[in-house]
């Protein structure tokens, strides 16, 4: 429960992911190609389980420095407004994602498909079967969002992924 206007208690129900689409926006020469990405159930309800499945190919090893840029925007009054980077969340740039990977424990499902979350990332085709993650994003306001993530390695586009989601 939270306190609303004039001290009245308000409660926000679960957040639902009611629309999702993705696009591999990397060009033909991208070092990573994302062939498929699915999220279930439909609709996804947060907090709760989120199932992810994906197939992708790393065409060439990706080492340090692996530069990353993330752009996230929320639709407000019919226009997308960029969310700022606060504490490494939001529209942020990362000088080397390999350094960030060193700070996390690689999830078991990722290790099982052959990625150990350390650089260099090996060239190979990868398939993550439907894998469940428990997610609590009830703090994110309802609305339409778009995100674009780019990875650059040695001046070449490593990967690009665009997502569009609607939370209600």
TrEMBL record:
Keywords noted in UniProt: Signal
Keyword Acyltransferase among record annotations: no
Pfam family, one: E1_DerP2_DerF2
Domain of life (superkingdom): Eukaryota
Signal peptide: none
SMART domains per the UniProt record, alphabetical: ML
Stretches assigned to the MD-2-related lipid-recognition domain: 22-165
Transmembrane annotation, as ranges: none
Official protein name in the record: SAP3-like protein
Organism: Mya arenaria
């Amino acid at each position: 429960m939270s306190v609303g206007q004039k001290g009245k208690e308000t409660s926000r129900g679960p957040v639902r992911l009611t629309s999702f689409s993705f696009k591999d926006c990397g060009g033909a020469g991208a070092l990573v190609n994302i062939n498929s990405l699915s999220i279930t159930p439909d609709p996804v309800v947060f907090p709760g389980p989120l199932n992810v499945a994906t197939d992708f190919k790393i065409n060439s090893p990706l080492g340090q420095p692996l530069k990353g840029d993330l752009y996230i925007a929320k639709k407000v009054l019919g226009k997308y407004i960029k969310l700022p980077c606060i504490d490494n969340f939001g529209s942020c740039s990362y000088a080397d994602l390999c350094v960030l990977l060193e700070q996390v424990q690689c999830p078991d499902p990722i290790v099982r498909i052959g990625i150990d979350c350390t650089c260099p990332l090996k060239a190979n085709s990868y398939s993550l079967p439907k894998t469940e993650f428990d997610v609590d994003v009830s703090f994110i306001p309802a609305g339409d969002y778009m995100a674009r993530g780019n990875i650059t390695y040695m001046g070449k586009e490593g990967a690009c992924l665009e997502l569009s989601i609607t939370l209600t």
